[in-house]
Amino acid sequence: MGIWRSDCKLAFLDEFEMTPVARPRCILLVAFLFAALGPLHAQVLAQGAAQVVSLTGTLTLKGIRQESRLLRLRDTVQSGDELATGENSVALLRTADGSTVTIYPDSRVIFNERSADVRELLHLFLGSIKVHIERLSGRPNPHKLTTPTAVIAVRGTTFSVFVDETDATLVAVDEGLVGVANVQSPDLEVLLKAGQRSWVRPGQPPQQAQAFRGRSERADLMPAPGSQGMMGSNSGMAAGMSQQAGSMGNARGMGSMSGRGSPPH
Question: What pLDDT score was predicted for residue 189?
């Protein structure tokens, strides 16, 4: 190794006048570096794309210009792709700016493109997700998410979103600040701080911020104010769902309350 390094160093300092011994060694060294850096270059994501960095169970891609197929670890998701997780399935995706999206069981989302002023990260049709927005050099990194009933403005934070079969949307914040509004009245926004949640129902403005305890992905296990549904009247059922969620590990979280089997709130 000592001869290799000295030969290459002298060759480059001498205006690339390599000796017959140094030339093949330097060529091999350059080839090795290209081979090592090639995979890293391949991992660079285009703006609006994301990569599957963790997967348990199944994640199905429903592309605009291609047939549905199962995704695997390290596969890339492009803007406009629709994703669906299976039963007992959890997927973790990382975007080009380092932000992450955890998609819990029985959920459907679509990745959107960046607009002129803010990145429209995704649209959640049904189920539950947890999002971490990475700050850019310590500065806010504004994003927007949508559901059938809500517009969610993000300012660099960690939060969870849950959509049930009635299109009711729950937003709960772990860290940072999130603005929540109904899609029909986007000017009536409720700001949520860490440890707060809000429900948005069809045709209604967001509920006032309500405190919750624990992680945001478990916030749907706490009955909504005035709820007369199964969750509000049966605390034992809520406890059982919490225990079921815990059996899947910390990664599952709100997946215990997937839209497929959720009672109305």
Answer: 95
